[in-house]
Amino acid sequence: MDGRDQLDARSLAGLRFSAATAAFQIEGARSLDGRGRSIWDDFVDTPGAVVDGSSAEPGPDSYHRFAEDVALLSGLGVDRYRFSISWTRVIPDAGNDESANEVGLDYYDRLVDALLDAGITPEPTLYHWDLPVALEASGGWLTRDTAHRFTEFAATVSDRLGDRVRHWFTINEPASTSLQGYALGELAPGRSLLFDALPTVHHQLLAHGLTAPVLRDNGAVQAAPTINHSLILPASESEDDQIAASTLDAIMNRLFADPLLTGTYPDLSRFGVEMPVVDGDMELISAPNEIYGLNYYNPITVGASTGPLPFEMIPTPGAATTGFGPLWPIRPDTLRDFLTDMDRRYGSLLPPIVIAENGASFPEPDSVAGEIEDTARIDYLASHLAAVAEAGEAGVRIDGYTVWSLLDNFEWAEGWTQRFGLVHVDMASGTRTPKASYRWYRDLIAAARR
């Protein structure tokens, strides 16, 4: 069934709509105006690390062309814009010298003011993976000190922007940083520590716990992390596959939701790891948040494995897939089921949920002469919004929905090979061309408000 056939815009009344981007993926200007180096600069410059050998330059070049992005957001009619603030643009040599770069702060001043002038609420994310290189050289998220340095960075930013910015996200997708960045080496910083990477989870959550009060002291009415989750599906009913699915669920989901919502970690004894918890940490981490930021793209089907990991990700039977291939299945029902399971598991401890990222990449040309008819993306978004509506009807409190992404962007280790945007970007010229999904999302937002 066409995803649009499943969706009644009236079922989304009251939902706040947004679109998202991240600094490293869209800003360009990697070496301009005092910006320092992050672990992603090092990763991109490592031969073979990015599949197409591309860099993040110039790409959308939003550092110079942010006014075009604000105009596109205004045309969509979104309530909010979720963007991220580059740590190294604000504090270029963090870890060695905590001095702020006023030119970098000025850029975010201009962006925030432009959004407010357009009637759009700015919703910055303070950490979207761009750790300064000096901090990584000192241990990165494996060390407790990084959480304190992050809080100092957040204070610098909120001291400048807090008079106008009230809604913040702290740490984005800590699971990706810990599991893909430190455990498997697929993303920056490219370390392959397997289960020895798990302390990075605690230090990222601690960074959130330390930072949220600082933001609220500077006027914030929202200070929450965004956690990427997936519904984990066992490959079969066999005991081994069920155990494999339970193991990945613990690592991917409960390892983050449990400490944030209950103040405890799930049992990690099977991994031979003890979290580096200090007295008072869990109280900071589990302090109530105004919302629960949840990023969701796809379920993960797993079977038992005898390899270094006790599970193996396999294609989800019968599911269509996005441009990422067989391990990115399209199963919108699993978003509904994950949301209702979160509500059932955590009950009154779970604040209202904001879907902080949801979207899909599909093959598209590098250059276009006109609008792309990206019907597969529209179907994906419509069917997932229908799942959100179904979860809401089942009693789950959901306050917002965010499309990833406003723009085609540099897709991390995939370079320019994956396009998620509502707006096509020619990476050579920076030219922006709205896709059919842009028009669809604009019309949906308008219909939901009638």
Automatic annotation (TrEMBL):
- Taxonomically, the superkingdom here is Bacteria
One annotated GO molecular function? beta-glucosidase activity
- Name the UniProt key words of this record, in alphabetical order: Carbohydrate metabolism, Cellulose degradation, Glycosidase, Hydrolase, Polysaccharide degradation
Which Pfam families does the entry mention? Glyco_hydro_1
EC number(s) per UniProt? 3.2.1.21
Q: Which reaction does it catalyse?
A: Hydrolysis of terminal, non-reducing beta-D-glucosyl residues with release of beta-D-glucose
First-level EC class:
hydrolase
Member of which family? Belongs to the glycosyl hydrolase 1 family.
Q: Which NCBIfam families match?
A: BGL
What is this protein's record name?
A: Beta-glucosidase
Tell me what organism the protein belongs to: Brevibacterium spongiae
The lineage is: Bacteria, Bacillati, Actinomycetota, Actinomycetes, Micrococcales
